[in-house]
Amino acid sequence: MKHSSGAFHDSNIVDRSPCYAQTRKHILSEIETWAMDASSEPGYWMFGLAGTGKSTIAFSVCEILKGRKVLAATFFCSRQIPECNNYRLIIPTLSYQLVRFSRTFAMSVKEILAQEPDIVTKRPEVQIGKLLIEPWKAVMKAAQMGSFHPVLVLDALDECQDIAKVLQPLVSAISKKELQGLKFFITSRPEPKIQAELKAYSASGMKEFILHNVEEDIVQKDISVYLQKELQHISPTEEQLCILTKLSQQLFIYAATVVRFVKEADGIARKRKRLLGCIENAANLKDLNALYVEILDMATEKLQDEEMQDDLSIIHTIVSVGKPLTCQTIAELLHAEVESVSNLINRLHAVFYMTEADGPIIIFHKSFYDFFASSKDSKYKYNARTQHESLTFSCLQIMERLCFNICNLPSSFMKDDDVPGFKDKVSKKIPETLNYCCQFWTDHFEIGQTDQLFQKVQEFLIEKGIYWLEAM
């Protein structure tokens, strides 16, 4: 069954970690108590503003419930990764994990897939009926689950496209007790569409927790513990820690970004210098956006104007692409040197990371996108239409390589699975950059449309359209 393994809470695609020991104790204890109480509400919705630590708490909850053997399934949304922001994959992914959790559930799903093998392509309400409700009823009928209720965790719903299309029928099924015996822990930003669905249900069975309303002194104490542990190798003074804690306000992401910014410097002396710079510039680092400006300023302070524009082009491209890409592919999209991209990433470990040496570039936090979307700073101002127009032109140029039977397959009458070494042929003839362009040029075109670009697209479709479809 098609699913998104990248959305599992412990997937290695995204670098996640639990809450620091001795932090978030109250909220984690409350959630664990809710999860283990068979008589408590079937749903728990934790929402909070950007940077308040929702995903870190959700990861900790998963690890705690996994230890208690009640974690049944997880789906961690991510706007950066297509398989993790596709609403069509949420229910199949939850069902796939429940199959491994319950033998009866697995047998029921197997029968359903035998009858309807294309069920994963259906509308979410149909998926919920066939991949969750029907097999779960079989589990309840067999009375296998005992006194505990399995928990499903859905994190960062605001990062999933068209999430209401799944949320509405799922909430409806829970409210009608069609999934009685399952519990759902959900996190999101307080976005109107999500609030509308969940608040409509909250009166009858959805416990709410507003993360940004936690008393400031409790959050500040937790942030202080985190900063002490993470910066202990450079021995900050109590006064310095106090200033950083106050600067963070209630935003764990602020504290985490400062820590990464300090740690990326070479040597203890330079790390201390960066820390001191943050302290001395405290008046100007009043919020997360100001901190991002400081980080970018530091990374580009010795560059000439042309070099500055080149680096900004790289950053804007990373922010704009449809999925995380390697330094090599970013460089090819920009007709730049790979070394230029990798050098910039090495100067910006506070906001970017790669899970492996030649892996894709991932942005630490969604707030970095928000910074560019709202930036009024003339140096870093981001024009989405212009950026996506440029990326569309680049994609079209790269796709000029497309040709008839690009993979040199023996026959169009053979199924892909019957072609020896099919995957190797495809990856060799349609490498990452060309593959990306084929998949995402239409997304860039949708945002960056201009008359000139429209004409270029028409020419491409006439000359290469059939070869593009073949490559897809």
TrEMBL record:
This protein's record includes keyword Repeat: yes
Recorded hits in SUPFAM superfamilies, A to Z, give: P-loop containing nucleoside triphosphate hydrolases
Could you identify this protein by its name?
A: Nephrocystin 3-like N-terminal domain-containing protein
UniProt keyword annotations, A-Z: Repeat
Nephrocystin 3-like N-terminal domain boundaries: 29-189
Q: What domain of life does the native source organism fall in?
A: Eukaryota
Kindly give the Pfam families that the UniProt entry links to this protein. NPHP3_N
The protein's organism comes out as Lentinula lateritia
Enumerate the InterPro entries for this protein. Answer: NPHP3-like_N, P-loop_NTPase
